[in-house]
Amino acid sequence: MTIANVIVDVPASSINQTFDYRIPERFQDVLEPGMRVIVPFGPRRVMGYVMGKASTSDYDKLKEIADVLDLVPVLTDELIDLGKWLAEKTLSLYIIAFQAMLPQVLKANYKKELERLSEAPLPDQLETLFAGRDFVPYEELESAGIHYHQVQKAIQDGDVSVHYLVKSKVTKRHVTYIKPSRDIHLLEEAYQDLSNRAKKQKELLAHFIEQPEEIALNTLLKHFGTTRSTVNALVEKQLLEIVKKEQYRNPYNDAAFEQTTALELTEQQEQSIEPIRQDIRMDHHDVFLIHGVTGSGKTEIYLQAIQDVIAKGQEAIVLVPEISLTPQMVRRFKGRFGSSVAVMHSALSNGEKYDEWRRIHQKEVQVVVGARSAVFAPFENLGIIIIDEEHENSYKQEDQPRYHARDVAIQRGKTHHCPVVLGSATPALESYARAQKGVYQLASLTKRTNDKAMPHVDIVDMRSELHAGNRSMFSRDLKNKLEQCINRGEQAVLLLNRRGYSTFVMCRECGHVNECPHCDIALTFHKNSNQLKCHYCSYEELVPTRCPSCNSDLIRFFGTGTQRIEEALTQLIPQARVLRMDVDTTRRKGAHEKLLNQFANKEADILLGTQMIAKGLDFENVTLVGVLTADSMLHLPDFRSAEKTFQLLTQVSGRAGRHDLPGEVIVQTYTPEHYSIELASQYDYLQFYQNEMQMRKKFQYPPYVFLALITVSHQNHATVVQTTQKIVKGLWSHVQEEGTVILGPTPSPITRVKDRYRYQCMVKYKQEPNLRASIHQIIRQFDDQVRKDDLQITVDMQPYQLI
DNA sequence: AGCACGCCGACT
DNA sequence: GTCGGCGTGCTC
């Protein structure tokens, strides 16, 4: 086995295969599949992942592996298979799939530098560049404006050479420890020999004679009130030695979490957990869907199932939506399992993510709680995978590889023969349909653990408010309830459902709307900078004082941003202390947590925010929840809009009255009769499911069909249309089944982004076993144009949102 | 992707 | 001549 099959870090479809390399003698014993290596590739060097080893190769001009980056494989055998599966399922490149499975810092950094090889005089410019140095970073060439030709000559003459460097981004944090380097009795001898003037040194030695264990330098210095020089003196005398130890950054202080023990389960909880426990005992794979109302104790089921898994010596992955990875959630897991829990989410720094990943990799933890990508945690003995709030769309990755964490979890569950548990108060229609068909095992938790009724929901018809002359964003009912709530010393949460509802600028005279010059979308008004910004390409301009079209000064802001609501609210109820939570106020690290803490400490009466406040928050003093615009996303061109509205309303209602105080919910809408709003107010998931399934059947949408979405983009409008047309034609000639439909070419909902036109076509199918292969074959025909003409083609095998 | 190579037009 | 721009093909 002297040959390695390597996937190289070159994201191009023509490179999407393994390349063979000879394994030099010195790496024979250490190199294993799953390790990262540096290999020569053409004139440069690149990073690669070893997929396997072989004793022969078809290729006869093999090069050698230049270096091995890992001591232990970063990809287990299972993850290598999973990566291949992922790439094929999502029509992505292998390298893209593998990179997605590992923390950022394991990606390579590439650098070029020039080395001076001889003393021979170089052209003047080069001579000044080197200025006595032997190595020069390549970027300096460009900034010095030196032409490539002069260098080329020097290279040909053998005076200069180019090095291609591959650097790992890994940064480990080290802590210095001190320990005795000799036997205790030798230390004692040395202690006698030490001059009496060396008081501090004697003290230190005495300490190590008493306690020879290694100790952190910092602690030592602090304890003895001395400095590094004392230690150095002893090190020089070879009595003590310095040990550098790798230290993990621990973003959470484990000791700070109050330990909890298993709660007694209700009858419903018992019934739900028993089949899961059985799977755990029997090493059996099933997918369970726990449909449990808010407050029915799903988390306790997760915790106790994990307990079983740990007791069996196995590991657990818990996925939670990005947004609800609140301290509250972390506390529940750390509280139960203490330091055996790793946490992975986007708010961690790259270094912190890497450290958490390593704790998993080195088997220091048994549980990982994390967002989507935690589904790739490098456990080798998985006993359960849990996906909380399984309907959340943050489980779908929206760039390559476009995977759904649920699919990956089930794939891993199959290989590990372990259960996958999906939990939600409002399961995705696909999931519930599968449970109905018996593909998943369904468990329903209809009762809340505290036996409290769900808060009452009042629907306010905003049209009659308008007729009654109330033109504000707040219905009279909501205003009254807010005032009462504050007067009682309780708190309220106000949700502005902002999707598709941003603040834009319009001229009242001629109706002109300021749009982005690069994208087909209205610019969004940002008050604090007095700017108009494009949310797709980050173009920005100052707010005009006069209409660019008709020069009128009657320019007004439309739509409803949280900022405007906040202003209106403080006018309406001046005594209210309002806390605003949206992308603007939570951008800074830790801001999210800080705001929530302020609210928990009752420093504000009203928490006003977007989607992000709907999930997972649990404040005991909140008794009123108001939804300002329940239907704002109902009319978006997305087949899931009713489902999303239902989910959001159900979820946000669950925020009220979770504890002793009774809660109340007010939902403002212009379409009170819509079934998603009406049924959400009655907490009737089953009825909603049936209604919505009828709609999906009628319009042929998932779960009745599968979707594949192909999007084409290019600067030239005609090119896009023609290419999409060709793809549609190609697809028609490949599809096999009767019922398969291909829609398009259609302009994408936002037809132009960053000066590129976007068209799409969609395949709706029930059974098309060769579709993936066909799509692959069709788009490969455009490889040349993709490379040379900046054409882009993306495929999404299960688009989650069409906008 | 990134790089070299080679062909072609333009310019000191 | 020779500099530099761009199209083409290759990478174990």
Task: Describe the fold and architecture.
The protein has 803 residues and is of the alpha/beta class. It has six domains: 3-107, PriA, 3(prime) DNA-binding domain (GIY-YIG endonuclease), CATH 3.40.1440.60; 110-168, no CATH class; 174-246, no CATH class; 254-445, Rossmann fold (3-Layer(aba) Sandwich); 456-502 and 559-696, P-loop containing nucleotide triphosphate hydrolases (Rossmann fold), CATH 3.40.50.300; 706-796, Alpha-Beta Plaits, CATH 3.30.70. Helices cover 33% and strands 24% of the residues. It contains 25 helices and 34 strands. Helix 7 packs across helix 9. It is globular. The two termini are 50 Å apart. The protein binds a DNA duplex (12 and 12 nucleotides) through strand 1, strand 2 and strand 3.
Residue stretches low in confidence (pLDDT < 50, at least 5 long) are: none
CATH top level label of the largest domain? Alpha Beta
Strand content: 15-25%
With strands numbered from the N-terminus, the spatial order across the biggest sheet is: 15-16-14-17-18-13-19
Q: What percentage of residues falls in helices of 4 or more residues?
A: 25-40%
Rg for CA atoms: 31 Å
> Residue-averaged pLDDT, rounded?
87
Described by strand count, sense and barrel closure, the largest sheet is: 7 strands, parallel
Distance between the termini: 50 Å
> What is the tally of beta strands?
34
CATH architecture of the largest domain, by name, is 3-Layer(aba) Sandwich
Q: How many independent structural domains?
A: 6
Remind me, CATH topology of the largest domain?
Answer: Rossmann fold
Our count of helices gives 25
Domain Helicase ATP-binding: 279-445
EC number: 5.6.2.4
Enzyme class: isomerase
Protein name: Replication restart protein PriA
